[in-house]
Specification:
The structure holds two protein chains of two kinds.
Chain A lengths: L1 E4 L2 H14 L16 E13 L6 E7 L5 E7 L3 H6 L12 E8 L6 E9 L4 E3 L3
Parallel strand pairs in A: 4-6
Antiparallel strand pairs in A: 1-2, 2-3, 2-5, 3-4, 5-6, 6-7
Chain B lengths: L1 H20 L26 E4 L23 H12 L25 E5 L3 E6 L1 H4 L1 E5 L18 E7 L2 E7 L19 E10 L2 E9 L8 E11 L14 H4 L16
Parallel strand pairs in B: 4-5
Antiparallel strand pairs in B: 1-9, 2-3, 3-4, 5-6, 6-7, 7-8, 8-9
The chains are: A alpha+beta, B alpha+beta.
């Protein structure tokens, strides 16, 4: 796991970017639980893509420092908005290897706000710069 | 303190987001004449849907807000608004997937469709938990208030004043907020909405919020809603997988809901 610190200015640009593209994660549910000053990078395998209302969840199995598999829950947009952008339940096939970028939970629990993902073949989903 | 500032910065950004979302149609946007029905009344439908903007702070849609004008709060309503701000609006009913109710329904994300029948107009909302409003157009009046069970959307009667659809609603329950920002209301809420379609691509929405229980005088908000030609409504069942409710605790630290092995 690699934790990247980003500057406040970059954070603001990213945050405004999210707002301008209208990420549905910022709907009526608070995002105060996410640390949006840190981008966390995780590598693992997809367990499940919960293509559900009000928001979707990317469930990823990630090995921790002791080699134990931990299930991470990464919140993404609504199936409505993502569906209109071409995202499908099959976008994250179970068992696929991915690297995920996320704003992690402030309380340290294995979860976060989904930013983007990159598959082994280089294909990217969401925001990946 | 820095974290606190960050939280407030994020919150502030979220709260001003509706103004960022509100994109008036660009000059080069098409302006097709207002569609009309056979009887000459304005057609509020067509082959498409209305792309409701996300109006998080309805007060920001008051004329004069930027110059400091604010809703004419009664003291308790102002205190509750401040309290709602202090806990990052965690008690917002819509966060629990309850319906938006009232004018908030016209500023809650995901599109809506307006269906005009002979004696009633239905507004079908994809968001807000997949709900609809019914507006009686048959000339009836509201039932006496003591015969009206309070509901999320209240009792709506409408009529045309020229090309303006005027919708008068009473009988709201108190289980909704006026917006995400934390403005509340009482069962005395009475709304008058003025809906026009100045040209095909835009619905202009005006709402008068008249609630002597929470505000000292009526106040008016308004925004534009853009048309998306060809788009259709989808499912949206908010309570399907609302995970945060399971982790949410009240002011005493008690969980709202119990985790189960569930569905």
């Amino acid at each position: 796991m690699k934790v990247l610190s980003i500057s406040r200015k970059v954070f603001m640009i990213i945050a405004l970017g999210i707002i301008f593209v209208g990420s549905p994660v910022y709907s009526h549910h608070s995002t105060a639980m996410f640390n949006q000053e840190q981008v966390l990078s995780l590598s693992g395998t997809i367990k499940e893509f919960q293509f559900t209302n009000p928001h979707t969840w990317v469930q990823v199995l990630v090995k921790d420092e002791r080699g134990q598999e931990v299930e991470w829950s990464l919140e993404w947009g609504s199936p409505n908005t993502l569906g209109r952008q071409g995202i499908r339940p099959s976008t994250f096939p179970a068992g696929a290897g991915v690297t995920i970028r996320t704003y992690p939970m402030k309380d340290g629990s294995p979860g976060g706000l989904f930013i983007g993902a990159r598959f082994a073949d280089g294909k990217t989903i969401g925001r990946w710069e | 303190m820095k974290k606190l500032i960050t939280i407030f910065t994020i919150t502030g950004m979220l709260l001003c987001m509706d103004t960022l979302f509100a994109q008036p149609p660009a000059e080069e946007s098409p302006r097709t004449p207002t569609p009309r029905r056979a009887d000459g009344t304005v057609d509020l439908g067509g082959n498409g849907v209305w792309n409701l903007p996300y109006v998080t702070n309805i007060a920001a849609r008051m004329e004069g807000f930027d110059e400091g004008k604010r809703p004419p709060f009664r003291p308790w309503a102002q205190a509750m608004w401040a309290y709602n701000r202090s806990n990052l609006v965690k008690y917002d009913p819509e966060g629990f997937c309850l319906p938006p109710g009232g004018p908030r329904s016209m500023g809650t994300p995901y599109p809506a469709e307006i269906v005009q029948n002979r004696d009633r107009i239905l507004i079908i909302f994809e968001g807000g938990g997949h709900v609809w409003r019914e507006i009686h157009m048959d000339g009836r009046e509201h039932p006496p208030l003591d015969e009206l069970n309070p509901t999320y959307f209240g009792h709506s009667v409408g009529h045309w004043e020229g090309d303006t659809l005027v919708v008068d609603t009473v009988g709201y329950n108190e289980k909704t907020w006026i917006d995400y920002n934390g403005h509340m209301h009482t069962e005395q809420l009475h709304t008058i909405e003025y809906i026009t379609r100045p040209f095909k691509e835009v619905l202009h929405y005006v709402a008068v919020i008249d609630d002597p229980g929470a505000y000292t005088e009526p106040w008016t908000v308004q925004w534009d809603i853009n048309w998306i030609e060809g788009q259709e409504l989808q499912d949206y069942v908010c309570q399907e997988n609302n995970k945060f409710l399971l982790d949410m605790v009240d002011d005493e630290g008690n969980p709202f809901f119990q985790k189960t092995n569930g569905l």
